[in-house]
Write a structure and sequence with these properties.
The complex is a heterotrimer of chains A (about 280), B (about 375) and C (about 300).
Chain A lengths: L4 E12 L6 H4 L15 E12 L3 E5 L6 H8 L7 E6 L13 H11 E4 L3 H4 L6 H11 L5 H14 L16 H13 L5 E5 L7 H18 L2 E6 L2 H7 L2 E6 L2 E7 H6 L4 H9 L2
Parallel strand pairs in A: 3-7, 3-8, 5-6, 6-7
Antiparallel strand pairs in A: 1-2, 1-4, 8-9
Helix pairs in contact in A: 5-6, 5-7, 6-7, 7-8
Chain B lengths: L8 H17 L8 H7 L1 H11 L4 H10 L4 H13 L16 E6 L32 H14 L15 H7 L28 H10 L2 H13 L7 E15 L7 E16 L14 E8 L3 H13 L12 H6 L3 H10 L5 H18 L1
Antiparallel strand pairs in B: 1-2, 2-3, 3-4
Helix pairs in contact in B: 2-4, 3-4, 3-5, 4-5, 9-10
Chain C lengths: L2 H4 L15 H16 L5 E2 L13 H10 L5 E6 L6 H14 L2 E2 L8 E5 L12 E5 L13 H10 L3 H14 L10 E3 L3 E3 L6 H4 L8 E6 L4 E5 L5 E3 L27 E5 L6 E5 L2 H9 L12
Parallel strand pairs in C: 2-3, 2-4, 4-5, 5-8
Antiparallel strand pairs in C: 1-9, 6-7, 6-10, 8-9, 11-12
Helix pairs in contact in C: 2-3
Classes of the chains: A alpha/beta (about 280), B alpha+beta (about 375), C alpha/beta (about 300).
Chain lengths: ~280, ~375, ~300
């Protein structure tokens, strides 16, 4: 693996359905659908390949149904990819990790990745306190010292600009913006080299969005952590991403430096997206 | 006898009724007497009184006879009968501290003031099928009764206390259980006179629980005990015995008339910590209360557990949702609605058929 | 002549030695062997119904029935007491179906079946403890679904259990779990030790004896082989503590280092303390063993 590459994804595919020989042929951006007309299989993601470098933010943009959320969910092992390989530098001898047993993947995920979901109900447990949500990540990484768990949780909440008293409050009693911050704190808990953010600001008020995005940018600069940011909002991509993948109907139609993709889109779909962005 | 929906319905129903009666009586055995049921099937009679909401062993036994032993059907008969009876007066609150104990245990402490009284229970009987019962005769009956009565020597030991002090009171004195609030209790809801409005107050809940179907409340309480929500219950005290029923004297203010006594089972569950009113208040246990007519321990314990579970501050499990518990555990209502699905649903079903056929056509 | 010929029929029926038939015993023994090979792991077994009610010790009973032989000496206790009604009842059934010798002296027993306590005198390598378990699944505290808890065990995914302990400390300043405190066995599976008081957990750790645990209603057996580590779940900076009996003495034998029951005099209503392990208490009163002084707890 190249020195600067943290994560390498090759041929990542996710299908729902029996699959037939013609699925790939009959679906995709040229066909305008990700449902195979022959067998009804949904090709949510059709063989995606890309690298994420150390300390870079990779944006993934596309409309709903493009496969962008499926992409991060497969990387985070929330969903099981149908096919493909993922390599993480320094892990499993730089070999594919998708084939590892579930308990191994769980441990790897705990150490190497953090995830922030669009809907806090997916990323947080609402029946335990904010502090406990962060503690869960720390405990997964075998930190069994109450005082240190407390201190680290407090530190993370402070870093994500959450009032210290909220450490013992239930997330359900807090605002959407706060809940996203708790998710971010939780994602950072074990200092993972990779953070995945799936439409994290899409459900928030515009002013709250701006503050959360600022926070994400600051944290990334400070910690030099790699990120994959999924969004349908070109503005978010422009703000955060160094490089960008454009997805449609399960395929990557264009990728490159964000500036280039936005200023000089090559693919017709990218052009359409850029034009329609407000 | 063909059951033709449009015509002949009346005849079929009449024939069915005759058939029921015939099936009950056509065997070689002599007709059951109501006394036999009252005396030799007391737990069943107690259960039916509880679920029927009417204390009268005779009427419950009669209902059981009529229902050929089906407990839900018998409770139904009893409830229906109850509706025909005129309501005369409300009794004074029953004081279970003065219960004439026939059985009284606590799982919380090994010995308790007044002592543990095992009484009549099958708890420690080994459930080994006893084939000798198939040959029980009037002679064996006389023998058993004679032997027991000859062996019993009342009055030899020190007389029992007139009142058995409640275990919960002991805990209350030590501040381990919340104190009884100073303010007077509000007038209890009467669920037989007004339909329960949710969220339902505690008096309404306890009433609904008291009449609930045993299997239903057992299932839900069991779910709580197994971990769907967990209140961590201990049986603080279980009492079975007779309590006096009194009514206020119609004209001599301040005096009461004793009507008689009824047998009840009462359980006080001590459960994990009660939610505190304030940050500074010291933690206490929480209580769950269950009581029902007659001797029915499984039901009373289940009621106590559910009473506490339903007062969880953040309900998550089914047993903690008081609407769920109370609306689905009345045996008469639930069995009635269940059975109603046997009524003709021809029209509604025709609508479904129509819809499905249309959808299938669209696919082509 | 077989063993069965030596036993009288019960209510007109001739039962097998130790009541259950040999096929059932075989299945249970296989499950037990697997359990011993996988310390702390719950092994399912068929657990057919017995004449004793579910929740009243059918699991422990089936384990005892499967391992007991005519030369064994049996002690059965309930919360420490041989005379407790349920212990009496179980003993009756076992004696009626085996004819074996019973004892109240834990030193004499070869098989000790117990509900929720271990004897104060540590068991030896020639003794087996059989514990009755109501709820074998320690993760039930945080997860009601059996499918999910099995997955959690198989993946060693115990974070949620630890989170509940964390929340407990946040709310109460310390872990407030009482009896049945979850333990880590052999550094691997999290196990419920049955509702033993915290006081007894040290007796499970690196013990001379084998401990078998049976949950009849839930249909699981599990085991702690001798010399296996059994450590209560604790945070590094929140040391595990046992029940506090400081300043208390057993009113019957004078011991100050045993687990004490709180009892209320039937007549006077006054509270006193007596050893929960009634067999031990009796031995002290007879002068057979010295009274127990204050123990150093770790």
């Amino acid at each position: 693996m190249d020195d600067r590459v943290l994560v390498s994804v090759r041929g990542l595919e996710k299908r729902y359905g029996p699959g037939c020989g013609s699925c790939r042929e009959l679906t995709g951006p040229d066909r305008g659908t990700n449902v195979c007309p022959q067998c009804g299989t949904v090709v949510a993601m059709a063989g995606v390949s890309f690298d994420v470098r150390e300390g870079e933010i990779l944006g993934v943009v596309g409309e709903s149904g493009s496969g962008k959320s499926t992409l991060v969910q497969c990387i985070y092992f929330d969903q099981e990819a149908t096919r493909g390989e993922i390599r993480f530098r320094g892990q499993n001898n730089d070999d594919d990790i998708l084939g590892l047993p579930r308990s191994e993947k769980r441990k790897l995920r705990g150490r190497l990745m953090g995830m922030v979901y669009q809907n806090p109900l997916r990323g947080l447990r609402m029946d335990i306190t904010s502090g406990a949500n962060v503690a869960e990540k720390l405990l997964e990484a075998d930190l069994f010292h109450y005082g240190r768990i407390r201190a680290r949780a407090a530190e993370l909440l402070a870093r994500t600009e959450i009032p210290p008293a909220y450490i013992d409050r239930l997330p359900r009693s807090l605002s959407g913006g706060m809940q996203q911050r708790i998710q971010i704190a939780k994602a950072l808990a074990n200092n993972p080299p990779l953070i995945l953010l799936d439409e994290v600001t899409s459900g928030l008020d515009v002013s709250v969005q701006a503050r959360v995005l600022d926070l994400i940018r600051e944290l990334q600069r400070e910690l030099a952590v790699s990120m994959i940011v999924v969004s349908h909002d070109m503005g978010v991509i422009r703000l955060l991403a160094d490089r960008t993948l454009v997805m449609k109907d399960g395929c990557v139609v264009e990728q490159g430096l964000t500036d280039q993709v936005l200023e000089d889109p090559q693919h017709s779909y990218t052009q359409l997206l850029v034009q329609s962005a407000l | 006898m063909g059951y033709v929906a449009v015509q002949g319905g009346t005849t079929a129903i009449e024939n069915s009724r005759k058939l029921n009666r015939y099936l009950r009586l056509r065997g070689e055995s002599a007709p059951l007497t109501v006394s036999q049921i009252m005396e030799q099937m007391a737990p069943l009679v107690d259960r039916v009184m509880g679920e029927g909401g009417l204390y009268s062993p005779f009427h419950a036994a009669l209902a059981i006879k009529q229902a050929s032993g089906d407990p839900i059907e018998a409770a139904f008969l009893l409830r229906a009968y109850r509706s025909t009876l005129r309501r005369l007066v409300d009794s004074l609150p029953v004081r279970t501290e003065t219960m004439r104990i026939s059985r009284r245990i606590s799982a919380a402490f090994k010995t308790i003031p007044g002592g543990q009284v095992l009484g009549s229970t099958s708890d420690y009987e080994q459930r080994i099928l006893d084939f000798s019962l198939a040959d029980e005769t009037v002679e064996t009956q006389k023998e058993v009764v004679h032997d027991f009565e000859a062996g019993a020597r009342p009055g030899e030991e020190a007389p029992e206390p007139a009142e058995f002090r409640k275990v919960v009171e002991m805990l209350r004195e030590q501040g381990l259980v919340p104190p009884v609030p100073d303010r007077p209790s509000p007038q209890p809801t009467d669920i037989t006179q007004e339909s329960p409005a949710f969220p339902l107050d505690r008096s309404g809940r306890l009433q609904m629980l008291a009449r609930a179907e045993t299997g239903g409340v057992l299932a839900l309480a069991y779910s709580s005990m197994r971990g769907y929500g967990n209140i961590h219950p201990t049986v603080g005290e279980l009492r079975v015995g007779r309590v006096t029923v009194q009514i206020p004297h119609p004209w001599r203010k301040g005096t009461a008339i004793t009507l008689g006594s009824v047998s009840i089972t009462e359980v006080e569950i001590v459960a994990k910590t009660a939610p505190q009113d304030s940050e500074e208040a010291k933690p206490t246990f929480a209580l769950g209360y269950g009581s029902c007519f007659g001797h029915n321990e499984v039901k009373a314990i289940s009621l106590g557990v559910l009473d506490r579970a339903m007062r969880s501050p953040s309900p998550r499990a089914p047993a903690e949702d008081h609407e769920f518990v109370l609306l689905h555990t009345d045996g008469v209502e639930s069995s009635g609605f269940c059975s109603h699905f046997k009524l003709p649903h021809y029209v509604t079903f025709q609508a479904d058929l129509d819809q499905l056929r249309a959808m299938r056509e669209n696919e082509e | 002549m077989t063993l069965n010929d030596l036993l009288p029929p019960i209510r007109g029926f001739q039962y097998n030695f130790a009541f259950i038939d040999e096929g059932v015993k075989k299945e249970i023994r296989r499950a037990l062997l697997k359990a011993v090979a996988l310390p702390g792991h719950q092994v399912p077994f068929a657990s057919p119904e017995l004449p004793i009610a579910r929740g009243w010790g059918t699991g422990g009973l089936q384990v005892t029935m499967s391992i007991i032989g005519p030369d064994d000496v049996l002690k059965i206790i309930d919360q420490g007491c041989d005379g407790s009604v349920n212990a009496v009842n179980l003993r009756k059934l076992l004696v009626a179906t085996t004819g074996i010798r019973t004892t109240f002296d834990s030193r004499e027993a070869t098989v000790l079946q117990s509900r929720h306590r271990l004897p104060e005198i540590p068991l030896r390598s020639d003794q087996v403890a059989v514990l009755q378990v109501p709820l074998p699944e320690p993760l039930r505290l945080v997860e009601p679904s059996e499918v999910e808890t099995r997955r959690m065990h198989s993946e060693g995914d115990y974070a949620r259990m630890w989170v509940s302990l964390y929340e407990d400390v946040v709310q109460h300043g310390a872990v407030s779990l009482g009896a049945g405190y979850p333990v880590r066995v052999n550094g691997n599976y999290i196990m419920s030790p049955s509702p033993l008081p915290r006081w007894d957990l040290r007796m499970l750790n690196d013990a001379e004896h084998l401990t078998l645990l049976g949950a009849g209603r839930e249909k699981r057996v599990y085991a702690v082989p001798p010399h296996t580590s059994v450590r209560p779940l604790e945070f590094e900076d929140q040391p595990f503590t046992v029940e506090n009996f400081a300043g208390m003495t057993c009113a019957r034998c004078g011991s100050t280092g045993t687990f004490l029951d709180e009892i209320y005099d039937e007549k006077t209503g006054l509270a006193t303390r007596v050893c929960s392990d009634s067999g031990f208490c009796d031995l002290v009163r007879e002068g057979a063993v010295p009274r127990r002084g204050r123990l150093a707890h770790g």
